[in-house]
C-alpha cells in the first residue's frame, strides 16, 4: 500500500468526523457528536445539517493538528457521498469539493456502507485483516445486511432487512422504555445486569437470509402496554431484564441468518461492522462461534464501528491507489447501492 496521506470526511448522519490516514495507518480520527438530537428522541435532519455546518471546520482542523500534518501534505480528499441524510451529506460533500479545489488535489467519493466493511483493513482495526471471500454482517441504525465480500470493491448483499434496521430496533424499543437516543449503547449497558431469559419476544420467520425487525418492536410495545396497565412501575422494576431479553432476541435473529449463510456458503471468515457491532453481547457470540464453529472472526476496534471518518479515509486510500477519482461536479446522494 502507498504511503500517501489522505483526509477523510464523514457527515452522513449525526456525526461530523474527519480523519487522516497514511497508508492504512490512522494518524487521527476526530468526531463531533450532536447531542441536540437526544431531546427529540431521534435525529432531526434539519438540525443535523446545521450542526455539521458548525462542526466541519473545527473537526477538520483538529484532525490535521492531531496528526501533525500540514494541509499541503494531503494527497487527496475522500468524502461520504451517500447513503444517508441528504442535508447532512451535502455539508461534507461541498466542503470536500471546495477543499480539494483549493488544495488542487484529487477528490474521492466513498460509499458509507462499503466504508463500514472496509474499516476492517485499517492497520489497527484487527490483529489480522479478513481474507477474501468473507461474510460481513453490517448492522447500523439505517442498515442490516449480510454482505458477501469477494474483493475490496466486489461486494454482494445476500440478505437484508425488509423493514427496520437492527440499530433502529434497539433505538425504538429503547424509546418504549423511555431511554435516551440512541438507546443501543444504553440497552447494552443495562443488559449486563439483567437476565436475558426473563422475557420472550416474537422472532420473525423470514425466507433465505433476509431480516425483519418491526415484529419484535410491536411485540415489546404490546407486552409493555399490557403490563403497565397492571403495574405502572413495570418498566422501572424490570428494566435490566427487559433490556437483556430484547438484546438476546435481536442478537439471536441476527446470528441465526449469519450462521446459516456461513454454513451454506461454506465460509469461515466472518466479520461484523456498523454501529451495532459495538454491542458487547454480539461481540461475545462472535467469539463463541470462533470456538464452536471454527470461524475466523473480525470484530473492528470500537472506534471504527460507529460512524467515523477513519473508515472513509481507508476506502479513499484504496481508491487512490486505483486512480479512482471523482469529478468536481459530483453531488451527494441519499441512496447509494453497494
Ligand atoms: O453505524 P452507526 O453509527 O450509524 C449509522 O450508519 O446508522 O450506527 C448507529 C446505531 C444506532 O442505532 C445505535 O443505537 C447502535 O448503532 N449502537 C448500538 C451500540 N452502539 C451503537 N446498538 C447496540 N449496542 C451498542 N453497544
Ligand atoms: Zn454508519
Automatic annotation (TrEMBL):
Gene3D superfamilies: 3.30.420.40. It is found in: Cytoplasm. It catalyses: L-threonylcarbamoyladenylate + adenosine(37) in tRNA = N(6)-L-threonylcarbamoyladenosine(37) in tRNA + AMP + H(+). InterPro entries: ATPase_NBD, Gcp-like_dom, KAE1/TsaD, Peptidase_M22_CS, TsaD. This is tRNA N6-adenosine threonylcarbamoyltransferase. PROSITE patterns: GLYCOPROTEASE. NCBIfam families: gcp_kae1, T6A_TsaD_YgjD. One of its GO terms (molecular function) is iron ion binding. Binds 1 Fe(2+) ion per subunit. It is an enzyme of class 2 (transferase). One of its GO terms (cellular component) is cytoplasm. Belongs to the KAE1 / TsaD family. Residues 26-313 form the Gcp-like domain. It comes from Chryseobacterium lathyri. Required for the formation of a threonylcarbamoyl group on adenosine at position 37 (t(6)A37) in tRNAs that read codons beginning with adenine. Is involved in the transfer of the threonylcarbamoyl moiety of threonylcarbamoyl-AMP (TC-AMP) to the N6 group of A37, together with TsaE and TsaB. TsaD likely plays a direct catalytic role in this reaction. One of its GO terms (biological process) is tRNA threonylcarbamoyladenosine modification. Substrate binds at residues 138-142, 171, 184, 188, 279. The keyword Manganese does not apply. Fe cation binds at residues 112, 116, 307. Its cofactor is Fe(2+). The lineage of its organism: Bacteria, Pseudomonadati, Bacteroidota, Flavobacteriia, Flavobacteriales. The keyword Acyltransferase applies. Keywords: Acyltransferase, Cytoplasm, Iron, Metal-binding, Transferase, tRNA processing. Its EC number is 2.3.1.234.
Amino acid at each position: 500500500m502507498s504511503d500517501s496521506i489522505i483526509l477523510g470526511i464523514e457527515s452522513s448522519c449525526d456525526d461530523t468526523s474527519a480523519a487522516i490516514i497514511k497508508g492504512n495507518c490512522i494518524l487521527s480520527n476526530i468526531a463531533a457528536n450532536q447531542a441536540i438530537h437526544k431531546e427529540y428522541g431521534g435525529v432531526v435532519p434539519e438540525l443535523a445539517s446545521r450542526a455539521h455546518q458548525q462542526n466541519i471546520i473545527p473537526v477538520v482542523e483538529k484532525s490535521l493538528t492531531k496528526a501533525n500534518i500540514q494541509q499541503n501534505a494531503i494527497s487527496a480528499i475522500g468524502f461520504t457521498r451517500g447513503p444517508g441524510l441528504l442535508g447532512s451529506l451535502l455539508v461534507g460533500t461541498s466542503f470536500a469539493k471546495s477543499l480539494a479545489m483549493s488544495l488542487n488535489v484529487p477528490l474521492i467519493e466513498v460509499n458509507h456502507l462499503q466504508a463500514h466493511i472496509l474499516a476492517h483493513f485499517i492497520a489497527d482495526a484487527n490483529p489480522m485483516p479478513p481474507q477474501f471471500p468473507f461474510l460481513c454482517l453490517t448492522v447500523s441504525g439505517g442498515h442490516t445486511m449480510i454482505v458477501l465480500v469477494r474483493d475490496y470493491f466486489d461486494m454482494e448483499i445476500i440478505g437484508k432487512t425488509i423493514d427496520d434496521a437492527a440499530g433502529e430496533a434497539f433505538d425504538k424499543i429503547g424509546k418504549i422504555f423511555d431511554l435516551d437516543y440512541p438507546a443501543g449503547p444504553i440497552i447494552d449497558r443495562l443488559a449486563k445486569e439483567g437476565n436475558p431469559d426473563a422475557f420472550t419476544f416474537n422472532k420473525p420467520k423470514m425466507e433465505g437470509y433476509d431480516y425483519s425487525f418491526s415484529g419484535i418492536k410491536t411485540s415489546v410495545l404490546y407486552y409493555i402496554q399490557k403490563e403497565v396497565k397492571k403495574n405502572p412501575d413495570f418498566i422501572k422494576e424490570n428494566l435490566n431484564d427487559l433490556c437483556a431479553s430484547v438484546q438476546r432476541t435481536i442478537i439471536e435473529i441476527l446470528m441465526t441468518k449469519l450462521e446459516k449463510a456461513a454454513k451454506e456458503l461454506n465460509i469461515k471468515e466472518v466479520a461484523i461492522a456498523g454501529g451495532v457491532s459495538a454491542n458487547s453481547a454480539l461481540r461475545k457470540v462472535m467469539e463463541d462461534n470462533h470456538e464452536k464453529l471454527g470461524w475466523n472472526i473480525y470484530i473492528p476496534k470500537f472506534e471504527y464501528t460507529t460512524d467515523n471518518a477513519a473508515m472513509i479515509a481507508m476506502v479513499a486510500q484504496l481508491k487512490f491507489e486505483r486512480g479512482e477519482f471523482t469529478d468536481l461536479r459530483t453531488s451527494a446522494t441519499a441512496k447509494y447501492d453497494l
